[in-house]
Amino acid sequence: MTCSLASTNARELKMDVDLPDQEAPEFVTLRSCDDFEFIVDKKCAMVSGTIRTMLQSSFLEAKEQVIRFPDIPAVLLEQAIEYFYYKVRYTNSTEPYPPFKVHPEMALQLLMVANYLNT
């Protein structure tokens, strides 16, 4: 099974990640503060402890499968989502994995986002 990521609102990002062929993937929508929506495989989104807690609770986010991040801009949320897919792809992998690239000018802000997302 292939896991793909798509975003709406003028940007498109696609990533392929091989997932076990157990069942059809479920998707969750992550919305940035500047109203970009990212449709993400739920298994990949659950890399984040914060998102996992929201989706496994009785909160509105769990019912709607939409999580809004009023303080995270799309450029940072997109990078965090790329890391979710990277983590799923390379966890328990026997092949060497490439370094996860982060633009130096985004590093501090991305670190704060990663801390909030408990990633």
Which key phrases capture this entry?
119 residues; two-stranded antiparallel ribbon; 5 helices; 37% helix; 16% strand
User: How do the strands of the widest beta sheet line up side by side?
Assistant: 2-5-4-6
Which strand-content bin applies to the residues? 15-25%
Largest sheet: 4 strands, mixed
Number of strands: 6
Q: Gap between N and C termini, in Å?
A: 24 Å
Which consecutive residue ranges, at least 5 long each, have pLDDT under 50? Answer: 1-14
Structural class by secondary-structure content: alpha+beta
Percent helix = 25-40%
Helix-strand pattern: EEEEEHHHEHH
Q: What is the general shape?
A: globular
Work out the radius of gyration.
Answer: 14 Å
How many helical elements? 5
Mean pLDDT: 86
Short summary of the structure?
The chain has helices at residues 42-45, 49-55, 60-64, 74-90, 107-117, and strands at 2-3, 6-7, 17-18, 27-31, 37-41, 66-68. It has 119 residues and is an alpha+beta fold.
Description:
Helix 4 (74-90) packs across helix 5 (107-117). The model is unreliable at 1-14 (pLDDT under 50). The two termini are 24 Å apart. It contains 5 helices and 6 strands. The chain is α+β, with helices and mostly antiparallel strands and 119 residues long. The longest helix has 17 residues, at 74-90. It is 37% helix and 16% strand. The strands form 2 sheets. The chain has a 4-stranded mixed sheet with strand order 2-5-4-6.
